[in-house]
């Protein structure tokens, strides 16, 4: 199926097909009079002439007859019809003279499946998988941010997104908090369009000049200069992608919130990295905002798992009310009656609402404080101010109630060793057995040099960490062309072809090292003592009643059935050297150490040299350069690495 046909079969638009007048002020109406045509609007927000009459007939009169009730309410499911989307492609924003600003967009129905939307963004739009989701909530009308708050918000949001590979979700319009996000991208986002993962989820009916965007797989110029008298808004030119949510209405805001929340929950279920089990963390960033923002915050922190909320104090309205109550109720303090009374007056003044509504809103704010551990207040005016991007990421870790190992995995996916060092790898932290060793394996496989250094500085020793299992796991990591390259080298060294799914052994890698360096070098992995101990370990595993996980991986069996006799014959002839008991050297004549992962004594334990050679053969230059600095005989190791590279 072609890309164009898949989009049109998967995504739809919605159009109102029945005129239900929003006002019942009667006038002397002749059948379909001029007043009805030009003044009276349907509940969907459109005039009569702007409707589609393919599914229903044109009304003869808008006056209710005796059989016609006045109680029928407009419903998206009943009074609209779905048809394939007719608006998707690329927007070219015309007013950004300083740089090229283009965005991909699509018009989708409000009941679209979040799975299909994520597939569209990853496969069709080729966006990188998110490692963090920053959903920005706040005022939709224009407001003024104090300079310090604007600087902290702009720099913190963009630095957090760029350093972690995050997606930013906004309303996408050129007013309110979405405009401030666009300004932040313009100032701190750089010129790399591929890193601008700023997604606007915008109501189709709220977009000014939305008819200019109609067209299938088109390139549309767009002028984001709206009519100041219009209730609709323009798209912000510094967003990279737009989901234009259509519920069949015109000029009405809010239909996008349900779909946006569904998409956020679905992204939470995705893995933050293929090697890690954790889902993509989500954090809600609140700037200013009206009364509806309080309900939104409560929905986030009540969800399971809770979504952390990061509030910028000093931005105004709902954000300041949340910050004030959060500080006043610290340490389970109750509000004094005089403070409560002043606070109720303040709520009414801020939002211009009556006492009853202010009381209801105060109740919602108190319910938010019941989950205060998921709310972080950031004061840009504070003297002990930490970097806003670090504050956002720290609140993400603490607000999700994740274990230390899970938090370490998140920072590993983000490649933020500074956050891990300051917040996770601290004195007194309780770690489950093996969690730090697994973190080291993940750091090596994901090529996170800063995390390898951090774990070594915190007491990780190679002699205890490196085992046969772990070293072979590193060599068999699927790394695309690098893995194929190693298989080709093994085939050249052994002068035979490898079967599909063959698992490389350390003896194979010893043959490769000797093959690349030449006859003047003998690898530790091919020496007689190592091969004998390696063989005994395999024999011990094979004698067990049920195959161990190591044997399954080594032979490539897994859950599959036994291989054919030809494959088994290959493994039998490719077994490492098995020495006779009489030919084994005595323990007295050789210095021996027990290597973790092997039950037999071997000539020497694994150390940084083994990891250094692995990094060179995996063509990881920065990791190899870092590991070269550890251990002894740096000059000799540099010569070996140069020989291997050549």
Automatic annotation (TrEMBL):
Any one of the GO BP annotations: metal ion transport
Superkingdom assignment: Eukaryota
Compartments (UniProt record): Membrane
Record's GO cellular component terms: apical plasma membrane
Alphabetized GO MF terms: monoatomic cation channel activity
Keyword vocabulary terms for this entry: Ion channel, Ion transport, Membrane, Receptor, Transmembrane, Transmembrane helix, Transport
Keyword Ion transport among UniProt keywords: yes
Boundaries of every TRPM SLOG domain copy: 103-368
Alphabetical list of Pfam families matching this protein: LSDAT_euk, TRPM2
Residue runs in coiled coils: none
InterPro entries associated with the record: TRPM (IPR050927), TRPM-like (IPR057366), TRPM_SLOG (IPR041491)
Keyword Cytoplasm: no
Membrane topology classification: Multi-pass membrane protein
Annotated TRPM-like domain residues: 424-557, 606-646
PANTHER family according to UniProt: TRANSIENT RECEPTOR POTENTIAL CATION CHANNEL SUBFAMILY M MEMBER 6 (PTHR13800:SF15), TRANSIENT RECEPTOR POTENTIAL CATION CHANNEL, SUBFAMILY M, MEMBER 6 (PTHR13800)
Protein name: Transient receptor potential cation channel, subfamily M, member 6
Protein encoded by which gene: TRPM6
């Amino acid at each position: 199926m072609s890309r164009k046909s898949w989009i049109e079969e998967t995504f739809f638009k919605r159009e109102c097909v029945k005129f239900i007048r929003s006002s019942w002020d009667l006038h002397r109406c002749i059948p379909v009079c001029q007043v009805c045509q030009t003044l009276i609007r349907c509940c969907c927000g459109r005039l009569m002439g702007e409707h589609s009459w393919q599914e229903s007939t044109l009304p003869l009169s808008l006056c209710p007859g005796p059989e016609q009730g006045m109680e029928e309410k407009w419903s998206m499911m009943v009074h609209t019809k779905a048809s394939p989307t007719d608006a998707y492609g690329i927007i070219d924003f015309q007013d950004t003279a300083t740089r090229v600003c283009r965005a991909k967009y699509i018009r989708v129905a409000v009941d679209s499946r979040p799975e299909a939307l994520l597939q569209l963004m990853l496969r069709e739009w080729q966006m990188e998988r998110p490692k963090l989701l920053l959903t920005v909530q706040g005022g939709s009308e224009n407001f003024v941010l104090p300079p310090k708050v604007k600087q902290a918000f702009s720099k913190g949001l963009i630095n957090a997104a760029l350093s972690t590979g995050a997606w930013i979700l906004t309303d996408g319009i050129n007013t309110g908090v979405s405009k401030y996000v666009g300004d932040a991208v313009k100032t701190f986002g750089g010129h790399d369009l591929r890193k601008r993962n700023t997604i606007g989820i915008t109501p189709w009916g709220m977009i000014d000049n939305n008819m200019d965007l109609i067209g299938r797989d088109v390139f549309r110029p767009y002028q984001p200069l709206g009519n100041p008298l219009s209730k609709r808004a323009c798209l912000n030119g510094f967003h990279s992608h737009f989901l234009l949510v259509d519920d069949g209405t015109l000029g009405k805001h809010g239909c996008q919130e349900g779909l946006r929340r569904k998409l956020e929950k679905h992204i939470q279920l995705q893995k933050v990295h293929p090697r890690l089990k954790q889902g993509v963390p989500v954090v809600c960033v609140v700037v200013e905002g009206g009364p509806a923002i309080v309900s939104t915050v409560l929905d986030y922190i009540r969800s399971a798992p809770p979504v952390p909320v990061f509030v910028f104090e000093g931005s105004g309205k709902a954000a300041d009310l949340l910050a004030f109550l959060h500080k006043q109720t610290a340490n389970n303090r109750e509000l004094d009656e005089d403070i409560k009374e002043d606070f109720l007056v303040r709520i009414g003044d801020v939002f211009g609402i009556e006492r009853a509504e202010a009381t209801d809103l105060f109740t919602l704010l108190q319910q938010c404080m019941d989950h205060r551990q998921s709310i972080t207040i950031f004061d840009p005016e504070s003297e002990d101010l930490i970097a806003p991007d670090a504050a956002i990421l720290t609140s993400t870790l603490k607000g999700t109630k994740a274990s230390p190992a899970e938090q370490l995995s998140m920072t590993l996916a983000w490649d933020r060793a500074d956050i891990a060092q300051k917040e996770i790898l601290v004195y007194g932290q309780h770690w489950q057995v093996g969690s730090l060793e697994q973190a080291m394996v993940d750091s090596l496989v994901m090529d996170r040099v800063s995390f390898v250094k951090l774990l070594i500085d915190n007491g990780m020793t190679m002699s205890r960490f490196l085992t046969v299992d772990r070293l072979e796991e590193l060599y068999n990591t699927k790394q695309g062309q690098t893995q194929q390259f190693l298989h080709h080298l093994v085939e050249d060294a052994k002068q035979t072809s490898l079967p599909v799914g063959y698992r490389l052994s350390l003896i194979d890698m010893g043959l490769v090292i000797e093959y690349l360096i030449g006859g003047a070098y003998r690898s530790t992995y091919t020496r007689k003592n190592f091969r004998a101990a390696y063989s005994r370990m395999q024999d011990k595993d094979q004698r067990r009643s049920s195959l161990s996980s190591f044997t399954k991986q080594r032979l490539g069996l897994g859950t599959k059935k036994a291989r054919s006799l030809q494959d088994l014959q290959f493994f039998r002839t490719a077994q490492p050297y098995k020495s006779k008991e009489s030919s084994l050297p005595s323990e007295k004549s050789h210095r021996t150490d027990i290597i973790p992962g092997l039950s037999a004594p071997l000539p020497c334990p694994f150390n940084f040299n083994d990891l250094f050679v692995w990094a060179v053969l995996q063509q990881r230059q920065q990791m190899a350069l870092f590991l070269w600095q550890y251990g002894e005989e740096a000059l000799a190791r540099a010569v070996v690495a140069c020989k291997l590279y050549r």
